[in-house]
Amino acid sequence: MSRTDAEGTASTARTARVRRTRVLMADGRELFYFDDTEPFVSGEPRAGEDTRDLPPASGGSRMRRDPLTGEQVPMASNRMDRTFLPSRAMCPLCPTVPGGPGTEIPAAGYDVVVFENRFPSLSTRDEEPDSLVDGDPTWPERAAAGRTEVVCFTAEHDASFASLTPSRARTVVEAWADRTTELQALPHVRDVFCFENRGKEIGVTLAHPHGQVYAYPYVPPRTAQHTAQAAAHHARTGRDLLGDVLDAEVRSGRRVVARGEHWTAFVPAAARWPVEVHLVPHRHVLDLAELDDAERDELAHLYPDLLARLDRFFVGPDGEAIPLPYIAGWFAAPVGPERDGERAALPRLHLQVFSVLRAPGKLKFLAGSESGQGAWVSDTTPERIADRIRELPSAFPGAVVTTPVDEQPSEQPVPPSPEPVPSSDPSVPVAGEGTP
Ligand SMILES: [Zn+2]
């Protein structure tokens, strides 16, 4: 990928034909174009200037440590004012129509764009010194000195990740890898998490296809769990945990839904969500930046195909497929002293895609056990989820599209979930990150 920043310096690295251009937005935030089409990929400058009258970008987010759990809780009160489901004409992620009001992207078109979130929950701007809540050492408080970015997958407002061409999906992978490398290098950052919230059921506030990157100034709970489990497994066996899980899933084959040369997708044996798939690289890599060209290429084919199958998982009463609301997150190894040790003792990069939809029109609510205890009770079985996905046609050669002969076909393929227990408490909303 060739790079040109606002100061005009350029460097060339291996990888796909993608050109990165860095510009500054009207309020000083950074924006990166990742161009894979002409004329920009060949060097035509990105000239559009953000002419909006915006106050300087601010941060000032704080986080407090919960003494009962040891977890950090960022306090992002500025996010209350963020844009909520604007009309299509007011979409801040669409290109700026020449002569029209400025959006976040000051160009008449783009391929993939990444920019700093205007309403960040983590920010390195306006860092205040560490302090104590009410002056009491029980509650330490410090700057939530990380960064949150928005990744626009395409300029097309009505598209989805599943509809991206492999070459555009590859450009998104390049953008993820680029942001992973740069954000890991920030002084306080301990974990970089690339994710997508899709669908209003997840709490998405903007319909335009986009994802986010969070660079946390602490190791978030799930990555901490993955890290502890991987280290314990390595101490016992000398091997990497997810590598052994992958081998076991392939040995069984029961829940595998797609398998390529470099990646395998399966419903994990202890899946928690009504729909859940993990996508795991065959090589032990720590993060997206460590993927090589061949792994990135196959990912750009396999992943949109997998999402397209998930978009046919549920069929409504009218016979129409229901686009799946989902959360897709790339779990990587933490950044920091952990990386000085044995690589195989660190968690392997992988993607988790999961949905709160358990039947057409019915959401899984995170009630007392899940929200209160973080203790999951599944409404279905991983094997039923896998059976349904394996029924769905795929354009990817390694996708499993037929039910094994030794398995009985599912009695109720659509939907695969049993009827809900009526006593479940619907008062707790589903988990979901708000979007910019
Ligand atoms: Zn849009």
Automatic annotation (TrEMBL):
<keyword id="KW-0548">Nucleotidyltransferase</keyword>
<dbReference type="InterPro" id="IPR036265">
    <property type="entry name" value="HIT-like_sf"/>
</dbReference>
<feature type="domain" description="Galactose-1-phosphate uridyl transferase N-terminal">
    <location>
        <begin position="65"/>
        <end position="220"/>
    </location>
</feature>
<feature type="compositionally biased region" description="Pro residues">
    <location>
        <begin position="412"/>
        <end position="423"/>
    </location>
</feature>
<dbReference type="InterPro" id="IPR001937">
    <property type="entry name" value="GalP_UDPtransf1"/>
</dbReference>
<comment type="pathway">
    <text>Carbohydrate metabolism; galactose metabolism.</text>
</comment>
<dbReference type="InterPro" id="IPR005850">
    <property type="entry name" value="GalP_Utransf_C"/>
</dbReference>
<protein>
    <recommendedName>
        <fullName>Galactose-1-phosphate uridylyltransferase</fullName>
        <ecNumber>2.7.7.12</ecNumber>
    </recommendedName>
</protein>
<keyword id="KW-0119">Carbohydrate metabolism</keyword>
<feature type="region of interest" description="Disordered">
    <location>
        <begin position="38"/>
        <end position="70"/>
    </location>
</feature>
<keyword id="KW-0479">Metal-binding</keyword>
<keyword id="KW-0299">Galactose metabolism</keyword>
<dbReference type="InterPro" id="IPR019779">
    <property type="entry name" value="GalP_UDPtransf1_His-AS"/>
</dbReference>
<feature type="region of interest" description="Disordered">
    <location>
        <begin position="395"/>
        <end position="436"/>
    </location>
</feature>
<dbReference type="Pfam" id="PF01087">
    <property type="entry name" value="GalP_UDP_transf"/>
</dbReference>
<dbReference type="GO" id="GO:0008108">
    <property type="term" value="F:UDP-glucose:hexose-1-phosphate uridylyltransferase activity"/>
</dbReference>
<keyword id="KW-0862">Zinc</keyword>
<feature type="domain" description="Galactose-1-phosphate uridyl transferase C-terminal">
    <location>
        <begin position="233"/>
        <end position="393"/>
    </location>
</feature>
<comment type="similarity">
    <text>Belongs to the galactose-1-phosphate uridylyltransferase type 1 family.</text>
</comment>
<dbReference type="Pfam" id="PF02744">
    <property type="entry name" value="GalP_UDP_tr_C"/>
</dbReference>
<dbReference type="InterPro" id="IPR005849">
    <property type="entry name" value="GalP_Utransf_N"/>
</dbReference>
<keyword id="KW-0808">Transferase</keyword>
